[in-house]
Amino acid sequence: MTLEEFKLPQKIQSLVAGKAYKTDDVGKSGSGILLFEDCVLKILDARDKEIRKKNDVSVQVMSWLKGKLPVPEVLAWEYDDKNQYLLMTRVHGKMSCDEYYLEHPRELCRLLAKAFKMLWGVDVTGCPVERTIERELEEAKYRVENNLVDVSDAEPDTFGEGGFENPEALLAWLLAHRPVYEPVLSHGDFCLPNIFVQGDTVSGFIDLGDTGIGDKWRDIALCYRSLKHNFDGTFGGKIYPDFNPDMLFEELGIEPDHEKLRFYILLDELF
User: Fold this and answer.
1) Residues 6+ apart with CB under 8 A from 106
2) Residue 30 above 80 pLDDT?
3) Model pLDDT, residue 107
4) Is the Cα torsion angle 47, 49, 55, 59 positive or negative in sign?
5) Closest CA to 228 of 264, 268, 192, 267
6) Which positions ≥6 away from 149 have C-beta within 8 Å?
7) Which of 189, 207, 215, 219 is catalytic?
8) Which SS3 state, helix, strand or coil, does residue 112 take?
9) Cβ contacts of 94 within 8 Å, gap of 6 or more
10) Contact 250/244 with Cβ under 8 angstroms?
11) Cβ pair 76, 15 in contact under 8 A
12) Helix, strand counts (H, E) of the chain
């Protein structure tokens, strides 16, 4: 498609006119993503007013993070009756799921630990969003009650034989096993494709739609799962043998809390 066929808002069109681009299909955001050499355009379906409101707040968080973390800078934020359009600067470096880092797991875990500590070091005063456990569970309840959970996208052992009968049963378990809340600045989707690295530096955080004050173990759990699946071939198809995801905790200098890891991995199954 040509840029004209996207029917972009005039301000966006003027900023990207004449630039070559390619589409990005990494991840599960459900957004249309156009990659230019120096910027990224994310096109979000926003016909639902609650989704529009959430996207507005996410852009506020991105702007609040400017100067606090290496995140994309918002260049333009426009919308029409169907979509919202976020144009932002492009983060440099490689995704932390790049083959080089998967082949050097100790170096990878050291960089991921550095990324966690960068997030945890941010003063959250004035942060526009807080995702408490209660808020997460309320949103999960809404999704279950409105049949929005895609069980086919879950881990193989979450539902069915040996797992939960259905999303309602999983939600009931989560409500009965909520952990102690440990608030920090949380990325919200701390998976390897969302953390960019360059040499021995964390060069950027992307996909910040769920970023805000939240439980530190949610990020750790999603990172732990992402590590396991990048190394066991679930993502990418290549198996990297003899990798131990507990290496992440060695680099963080903390003991793994497997109950909290399980809680947040299961909670994510409802989203």
Assistant:
1) 247, 251
2) no
3) 96
4) positive
5) 192
6) 143, 167, 269, 270
7) 189
8) helix
9) 100, 101, 196, 197, 198
10) no
11) yes
12) 9, 11
Q: Which residues contact 82 (CB under 8 A, 6 or more apart)?
A: 45, 46, 47
Quick one: tokens of 44?
Answer: 């979000």
- Whats the size of the chain, residue-wise? 271
Query: What are 119-172's pLDDT values in tens digits?
Result: 999 999 999 999 999 999 999 999 999 999 999 999 999 999 999 999 999 999
Q: Could you give the CA distance from residue 264 to residue 271 in angstroms, rounded to a whole number?
A: 11
Measuring CA to CA, which residue among 8, 31, 12, 19 is closest to residue 209? 31
pLDDT tens for 200-254 read 999 999 999 999 999 999 999 999 999 999 999 899 889 998 789 999 999 999 9
Nearest to 227 by CA among 177, 262, 193: 193
Phi–psi pair at 147, nearest 5 degrees: 55, 45
Examine the residue annotation and report whether 123 is marked as an active-site residue of this protein: no
β-pairing, 74-79 vs 201-205, is: unpaired
Contacts of 270 (CB under 8 A, 6+ apart): 140, 143, 144, 149, 167, 170, 171, 174
Alpha helices for the chain (secondary structure H): 10-16, 49-65, 99-102, 105-120, 133-145, 167-176, 216-231, 247-252, 258-268
Phi and psi at 164, nearest 5°, equal -85, 145
Question: Within a 10 A sphere around the Cβ of 103, how many other Cβ atoms?
Answer: 11
Q: CA nearest 70: which of 186, 212, 202?
A: 202
Instruction: Indicate the Cα dihedral angle 112, 114, 119, 121, nearest 10°.
Output: 160
Q: What is the pLDDT of residue 25?
A: 64
Q: How many CB atoms within 10 Å of residue 133?
A: 20
Quick one: tokens of 90? 């492009």
Collect all residues with Cβ–Cβ distance below 8 Å to 259 and sequence separation of at least 6: 177, 179
